[in-house]
Design brief:
The complex is a heterodimer of chains A (about 400) and B (about 190). Chain A is an alpha/beta fold. Chain A folds into two domains: about 220 residues, no CATH class; about 160 residues, 3-Layer(aba) Sandwich (Oxidized Rhodanese, domain 1), CATH 3.40.250. Chain A has 16 helices and nine strands. In chain A, the strands form three sheets. In chain A, strands 3-7-6-4-5 form a five-stranded parallel beta sheet. In chain A, strands 1-2 form a two-stranded antiparallel sheet. Chain A is elongated. By secondary structure, chain B is mainly α. Chain B has two domains: about 90 residues, no CATH class; about 70 residues. Chain B contains eight helices and no strands. In chain B, helix 3 crosses helix 5 and helix 7 packs across helix 8. The chains are: A alpha/beta (about 400), B mainly alpha (about 190). At the A-B interface, helix 1, helix 2, helix 3, strand 1 and helix 4 of A face helix 2, helix 3, helix 4, helix 5 and helix 6 of B.
């Protein structure tokens, strides 16, 4: 398990966690102020090529943070899965961005900079903040009219790597090159329109540029940990859980959990389509073993994953255990395996069903041990047993753990 | 005793608010420091920086005072302030409160915290204030539509290589550049 991000609430309590966020905000505000972002004329100057402060500060901040983050993930100090990557809602994002640009050039601020401006008693900053509160009000009152658009064109946790089909290191280098190119253009434009002498820029910036480029190359060289790397790092600790059988829940516990209205259960069936069509537990979703990384990604951005139990199942336990390793290595919380698999489930709940009969002769590992008269999927009685007809006894193993890291961005 | 310490206090405050105004930092240095804050936030907490989310929660808080129960009928705000939820009980409110404090302290230390109106040379004070208000309204409306502003999307999302955040960043700058010429009287 990577040491970062920290589980702040568990470490410092809620008050301590809030103090950390207050401090982060403090330094955020402080650096915005020293960068000149409380002065609207400086911010707006960007759009007339006079002063490229905004581009320089923003892109320097982006590449500084980016290089350090992917160095940390590459070295296994930080898990990329656990940091907040804003999900892509393409069209609301682009339309919202175009609207924001209008507000920017008219008002001279963005929300963060206007707060700093207001905090240093700039009257235009205070007016912008007041207008900003009205903007939120207008949006919240009218959102219901374009709800479908606002929640449409959703691509999930989409990254530049996914879009361009490149590695993380390549994406980092690409952003670095774009940023350095923008700095060069910005400085040329300042000389042309802002009347700045070619030599006015600070000299240490060259060292900083080469430094970040060098770090970008290091990131490209060391690469990012694969699922197997992540598993190897936690294997000894997690193999013990498998051996103690503390993550294999009995069919009785699964049925009780499904029936529990307070608990959300996601069932993932990793068997072949054929087996799934013959019989599967009602509510179980079939997933492909080769697709587990995408499933992990999908589960991780689910805001309720900290209150959800994910149960994997195969005919016995072999495939389910492999899938479990993939999800656990990706830091998906609360993942369990159905003990004994579908075969064990059927041995209990299909006992009295004449159309589900045990196969004669030996059966291979992780294969169905039952014959079915027809392929009914989840229409069997045993696929959706009525809990009150059964006297279930089991040793409860499910313990809910919250996911580390955020479940929502700073903009919700 | 109180009368004796009074003048001392006034001079201290006077001194504090009348520090000579210093120049802003080199933009690249400012950017590196801002980048370090952003990295620290992502590394320690997993969350990036944000500002407009704080706005939503302040609005929900004010609405709860003016029209109690109204939030329960607003789908967009119900999850942050519906029922018994306190909209200010959230980490992003801490961040925005910190932004106000940090901006204020830096302004104070560098002699830049003073009551003034910053505007282009060719417009009146009233025009500037009205445009700032309208700009603020339009900006946060767009920020809600895009689920984040320059801080949460362009800066934080950009650094973690979110594709949508990069699209939003280019949309913001593209639209501002495209419109700049037509409103140049406001700034030049």
């Amino acid at each position: 398990m990577t040491p970062f991000p920290l589980d702040l609430a568990a470490l410092f309590g809620k008050a301590g966690m809030y103090l950390v966020f207050l401090l982060i905000g403090f330094f955020f505000g402080y650096t915005l102020e020293i960068s000149g972002f409380n002065k609207s004329t400086l911010l707006a100057g960007q759009f007339y090529f006079r002063d490229s402060r905004v581009i320089k500060v923003m892109f320097t901040a982006i590449i500084t943070a980016m290089v350090l983050i992917f160095l940390a993930t590459g070295l296994g100090l930080l898990d990329y899965n656990l940091i907040w990557v804003p999900p892509t809602y393409l069209w609301p994002g682009i339309v919202g961005g175009l609207i924001m640009g209008v507000g920017f050039i008219l008002g001279g601020f963005c929300p963060g900079t206007s707060l700093v401006s207001a905090a240093t008693f700039k009257l235009d900053g205070i007016a912008f903040v007041a207008g900003g509160l009205v903007g939120v009000f207008l949006f919240s009152e009218t959102e219901k009219f374009y709800d479908a658009f606002f929640n449409g064109s959703y691509y999930g946790r989409l990254t530049l790597m996914d879009v361009l089909h490149i590695s993380t290191g390549q994406a980092v280098l690409l952003v670095l090159i774009v940023a350095l190119g923008l700095f060069w253009v910005a400085e040329k434009l300042e000389q042309l329109y802002g009347g700045k002498a070619p030599s006015t820029g600070s000299k240490p910036r060259y060292a900083a540029w080469f430094g970040t480029l060098a770090l970008g190359l290091v990131i490209l060289t060391i690469g990012q940990p694969t699922n197997a790397d992540k598993w190897n790092r936690i294997a000894s600790e997690k193999e013990a859980l498998l051996k103690e059988r503390s993550v294999q829940i009995s069919p009785a516990e699964l049925l009780t959990s499904i029936a529990d209205d307070q608990l959300r259960v996601i069932m993932l069936d990793v068997r072949s389509e054929r087996d799934y069509n013959l019989f599967h537990i009602h509510g179980a979703r079939r997933v492909d073993m080769n697709n587990m990384l995408a499933i992990a990604e999908e589960l991780l951005i689910d805001p309720k994953i900290g209150e959800t139990v994910t149960v994997l199942m195969s005919n016995d336990e072999v495939a389910a255990t492999e899938a479990w390793k993939v999800l656990v290595a990706e830091e998906v919380p609360n993942v369990y395996i159905l003990e004994g698999g579908i075969n064990e489930w059927l041995s209990i709940f299909a006992m009295d069903d004449p159309n589900i009969t045990p196969k004669d002769g030996p059966v291979g590992e992780d294969e169905l041990r039952y014959n079915f008269s027809v392929a009914l999927g989840d229409k069997w009685e045993a696929a959706d047993p009525f809990i009150h007809e059964w006297e279930l006894e089991f040793e409860p193993k499910i313990k809910l753990e919250k996911k580390r890291g955020p479940t929502a961005g700073g903009c919700g | 005793m109180t009368t004796a310490s009074q003048p001392e206090k006034t001079t201290f405050l006077k001194k504090l608010f009348n520090r000579p105004e210093q120049e802003y930092a080199d933009p690249y240095l400012g950017g590196i420091l801002l980048g370090l804050v952003l990295f620290a936030s992502l590394f320690i907490t997993g969350s990036g920086l944000g500002a407009s989310g704080g706005y939503s929660r302040y609005v929900a808080f004010i609405e709860d005072i003016i029209a109690p129960g109204h939030i329960d009928q607003v789908p967009y705000l119900i999850h942050i302030a519906g029922g018994e939820l306190n909209p200010l009980d959230n980490w992003i409110v801490m961040v925005t409160t910190g932004v106000l404090l940090g901006g204020f302290v830096s302004g104070l230390l560098h002699g830049r915290a003073r009551i003034e109106l910053i505007k282009g040379p060719r417009i009146s004070n009233t025009t500037r204030l009205v445009m700032a208000f309208i700009g603020g309204t339009i900006f946060t409306f767009g920020a809600r539509m895009a689920r984040g502003c320059t801080s949460g999307q362009a800066l934080s999302g950009g650094a973690v290589l979110s594709a949508g955040s990069w699209a939003i960043a280019f949309a913001i700058f593209g639209s501002a550049y495209a419109l700049a010429y037509f409103v140049r009287k406001l700034w030049l």
